Amino acid sequence: MDISQKAKTTNICDECDLTFDTIAKLKHHRREHTTTVYVNEVPISRTENGFPCPICDKILKSVRTFETHVSAHGATFAKAAKRSREELEDGLDALSQDKQPRLSLNVEKPSSDKPVLLRTYHDAILASCDALMENEKEKQQKIVLAQLGNWEPVSLLVEDKEYNLLASNRIVKTLVEDQIIGSWHRPDASVSNDNDCNCAKGQSEDVDSNIFHLQQTSQISHYLKSEKYVELTTHVVDLLNEDWLLYPQLRYVTSSIFAGAIMIEGNTALLINCVEPYGRLKAVDAHYERRLQKDTSSFPEKAGKYGWLKIVSSSEEGGQKLKIGTRTCNLLVTSSVRIDNGSGYAPELGPFTRNFRPSEKTKTFLDSASLASGKEMLEDDECRRVDRGRFLFQLRQLRSKFHALSSYTMCRASSTFTPGMEMMPYTVWTLFDYDCGQSISSQEKIGSRLFQVLAASVVKSGRDARLKREEVETLQDSTRAEGSIKRMLGEILGLMEGADSVPIIGNEKLNKVLTGMANVVSGGLNRANKSAVAHISSRSIQ
Fold first, then answer.
1. Is 451 helix (H, G, I), strand (E, B) or coil?
2. Which residues are CB-contacts of 274 (< 8 A; sequence separation ≥ 6)?
3. pLDDT tens string 13-36
4. What is d(CA 515, CA 455) in angstroms, rounded to the nearest whole number?
5. Can you tell me the distance from the alpha carbon of 489 to that of 451, in angstroms, rounded to the nearest whole number?
């Protein structure tokens, strides 16, 4: 049998054994054996006359004409199961072609990132106490204890495990925001705060637990970690209580020691950025603290935690002043910032400190570098300033008694946290250097420039210092608008009565004019100090 004869014998209908020349003819023939088709998925069986249309009852003999007819009605047509073999043969015909498209099956790998189902708030509390399987009474006790302690649950996810802990709301917020990763340690329960060493692993033995906590949690932790602090002692306080008449360098020593100090009261902490010392006696300081009102006095009436030292927030005209008092002087805090985590207070500059309330239990820690600097000054009988440079920023914020020599002592000290001039409190001596971007100096700045001239003369010449006519005239000429400063400069020229200069120290008439000028200049301090606050705040968030 040749190949053509073999092909013909293969085209045989398996229903009626008829033979066809081609597979196409065989396919067409097989349609006549179809007994059931589907219209809109409803089976339609062949009758003796053909397929009845379910829509119009017309009968059509062949499958092809029936399909065309029902499709014209908009119905869906499908062949009966009998056609599956024919369709399979159609597929086999397609496979017999020389070139077939490559088959591919896209199988997505199951994701390993399963949705994490965290425990509920109460379940997290119970899990932290290992109480999820306890009875309802025990569970309720654990939840109540968490509420009494103001503890919040926090979840730590490690791969597919969830660990739960309890902490304060502030700590929980820090952990969630910072996503802290580190090592875990169990504190030694046998070590108490009363022992000589109460340090955890990683905490130096000479670091107080309060300072260590601030170094870990404060918004300026980056700065605090770079500094070393020691708690104030009675020995240091005893030295600071020595008489200024015998040890004049103490006015510089005292402020230097407390610059950069940290005060802790309860859960609040204050970093002191700038302090000014004032003597107790009129003989050593024209700006001594008056003793008429005991409720505002910083004088220690009894020995306290650190000996003869009193830290007080006194209510005075304009606001609260934070003072540190010994029996020979008091320190006025003129720049500070709250550093306890979450305090949210802006730095304070000027004579008032409203964000800290000390008590007899207030703990004070000194910056080790400031303490060392104070020690050097104490051993130098010729010490006459806190710092070698920027003498104007070492003068106190004064508004009167410019005829007194003590008004020009360079005893104001600043911390290393606020080293730049743009971060220091402005005074009548320094307002001229406030960089506000104006091309023309304001009235306040011109007045401040006169105070700089006065200070430079006194620092150079002491009691022999004089104010020259030409210096006043130059400032008067630079004052373009008529105003109080220009008028006061004219009054100073009038005091000279044709002379080239007038003395500064002991000149009460000149002081009277300067006191009025200081009040005018002080009007610009608030605006300048706001700029300093912004600079300090930007440093706090670095």
1. helix
2. 259, 333, 334, 335, 336, 349, 412, 413, 414, 415, 418, 424, 425
3. 877 778 878 887 777 777 777 888
4. 14
5. 12
